[in-house]
Design a protein that fits this description.
Number of strands: 8
Shape: elongated
Oligomer: single chain
Strand content: 15-25%
Strand order of the largest sheet: 4-7-8-6-5
Radius of gyration: 23 Å
Length: 259
C-alpha cells in the first residue's frame, strides 16, 4: 500500500492542499500522522477524493456528500445509487424551479421589448409608453422581483464569516472559473463597495441573468465562505457578494473588490 504526504496527494488528485485540510476538518477525509506529525494518506484517499469530486459535479453540498461517503465506504454500489438517487432528483427540482422563474421573467421582458419597439408617444413617459412597469391585472400579474440567495450553513451559533476559507477547485478549474467571472463582470453597468464585499449591477438580460446565477451557485459549491445574494427586478440584476476578512484577497482577485 502506497502512502502520500499532503503535497503528493494534492498533486495526484488535483485538489489543493488547503482543500484537503478543509475536507479533513469537515470529516470527509482522514489522515494518519507520522512520528514527526506529518499527514500521510493511503490509496483509499485518492479513490475517496475522486468520489467527492464526482459528487460535487452534481451540485451536492458537502453535508450530503458526507452522507454518501458513509454508504460508499461499505463497498456496495447498489446502496450508493439508492442513496444518491433522491439527492439528484432534488437537484433536478432546484434546477427546474430556476428555469421556470427565468423563463417567466424572460417572457415578461419580451413583452416589454415589444412595447418599446412601437413608436414612442409625444411628450413625457406615461403609463402606456412601455418604459414603466404595467399595473397588474387578472390575466397579466406584475412580475415579482426574483431574489436568489445562496448562503452557507455553518454550525449553530456561527455566521457565514466563520466558514473555513478553502476552495475545492484545482488550479486549472480555478483559472477557468476566474475567466468566466471576468467575462460576466465585463457586462456590469455599475459597482458599489460595501462592508466585506461589493455589489455589482447588470442589465436584466435573461441570458446574462442565467449565467450570473449559475456562476454564483457553482462558486458557493466550491467556496462556501462566499455569501451571495442575487436580486432581479424588471430593469436590473444586482449581485451582492461578501466574504470573511481572511478571504478578502480572493474576493479582490475574482471580483475586483477593494476591501
Amino acid at each position: 500500500m502506497s502512502t502520500y504526504r499532503i503535497s503528493q496527494l494534492a498533486e495526484i488528485s488535483g485538489v489543493p492542499a488547503t482543500t484537503l485540510r478543509f475536507y479533513e476538518t469537515a470529516g470527509l477525509l482522514s489522515a494518519e500522522r507520522t512520528a514527526s506529525g506529518y499527514r500521510v494518506y493511503g490509496d483509499e484517499a485518492v479513490e475517496r477524493l475522486g468520489f467527492i469530486s464526482s459528487a460535487k459535479h452534481l451540485g451536492l453540498p458537502l453535508e450530503e456528500i458526507g452522507d454518501l461517503l458513509e454508504v460508499w465506504e461499505q463497498g456496495v454500489c447498489a446502496s450508493v445509487r439508492q442513496r444518491m438517487l433522491p439527492m439528484v432528483t432534488d437537484r433536478i427540482g432546484d434546477a427546474d424551479n430556476r428555469i421556470a422563474e427565468l423563463t417567466a421573467f424572460s417572457a415578461y421582458l419580451a413583452g416589454v421589448r415589444a412595447d418599446l419597439s412601437e413608436p414612442a408617444p409625444d411628450g413625457a413617459c406615461g403609463p402606456d409608453c412601455g418604459c414603466l412597469t404595467a399595473p397588474a391585472t387578472s390575466t397579466t400579474p406584475a412580475p415579482v422581483p426574483l431574489t436568489l440567495e445562496r448562503r452557507p450553513e455553518p454550525a449553530p451559533g456561527l455566521s457565514w464569516r466563520d466558514v473555513p476559507v478553502a476552495c475545492t477547485l484545482s488550479g486549472d478549474e480555478y483559472g477557468e472559473r476566474a475567466q468566466q467571472w471576468q467575462q460576466v463582470l465585463d457586462s456590469a453597468t455599475g459597482r458599489e463597495e460595501i462592508d466585506d464585499g461589493l455589489r455589482v449591477r447588470f442589465p436584466s438580460d435573461p441570458n446574462l441573468v442565467a449565467e450570473v446565477a449559475r456562476l454564483a451557485a457553482a462558486e458557493q459549491g466550491c467556496c462556501a465562505f462566499f455569501d451571495f445574494t442575487l436580486h432581479l427586478s424588471p430593469d436590473a440584476l444586482a449581485l451582492t457578494v461578501r466574504a470573511p476578512e481572511t478571504a478578502h484577497a480572493l474576493l479582490a482577485e475574482l471580483f475586483g473588490a477593494k476591501v
